[in-house]
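Researcher: Re-running this chain for the archive, since the previous output was lost when a drive failed. Same request as before.
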Amino acid sequence: MWSDRRLIDLFQIELPILLAPMAGSMDVELAIAVAKAGGLGSLPCAMLDAAKAREQMKEFRTHSQAKVNLNFFCHTPPELSNAREARWRERLAPYYRELGIDPAAPVPTSMRLPFNEAFCALVEEMNPGVVSFHFGLPEESLLKRVQAAGCAVVSSATTVAEARWLEAKGTDAVIAQGFEAGGHRGSFSGSPGAGMVGTMALVPQIADAVRLPVIASGGIADGRGLAAAFALGASGAQLGTAFLGCPEATISPLYRARLRSAVDDGTELTRAFTGRPARALLNRYITEMADSEPLEFPLQGSLVGPLWQLPSEEARTAFMPVWAGQAASLIRELPAGQLVDELVRQAQSILGASA
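Model: Regenerated structure tokens:
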């Protein structure tokens, strides 16, 4: 039923469905479930060190020998600035006082590590089969080692120019990340907020511009979206928010409750949480911090983090990030394997009827 099998053949999977790597919202259990259902499972490593990532990879291998996507960030580590940090502490001080947090208390360092030597050695050791990057690609020497390890390399593009650059650098497939996608934008050229193009417009333009398989991402939450991805020229689709309704996702009960009340216009692209544009459900913090000048990614998350750990559910609702795409209201609370089956059934019904 799949008119373009390039992605299926590249990843040696049964179905052209990729689980988006969602750091902080999933772990190996969800990756295993998607892999067993015939899609490509993913393990987000952006908030792990190499040792923890190795543990998850080993756990995955006890349940599946399928290829799995290890995902890494490729941001440039920021330069520390006491002056900039002091300004942000001053900006957040009213919230700290309101919520009973000591403004002078030390805050933990934000655990978002870029791809480095230790992660590269992990890839060479564990041979996951697929390695994906967000915010561009790592330095050339590390990229060549990943390729020499026999892994397919994938990265996100939010513009045609980014997709062409990724092709020139030797990636094997491109994720066309539309404006609708939840979580962090994968933009890496120009402004961190560049690439505000919707999935329906972006996918066919990237498909026309590169020879690589294109993976549609952003606003896809059911079989209709998967079928549309193929109609637009993609070889498959990457879904993230859709899988947050699954019991295998590791999100909190409060996070789940907020997703159940999601509406079509209830998300916002904001830099207020981490310093880089990321889509989340609207709350008080996003609204009130809309005009703030962000710190370099990921420094801001360290200062904002204490606002997310409050005992009061009302306070957490007002301040914590609930990463979600614009199609969050389409979420179905199904086990991951059953969700994959439903996606395929619906998409094939549409594609078969149009053939």
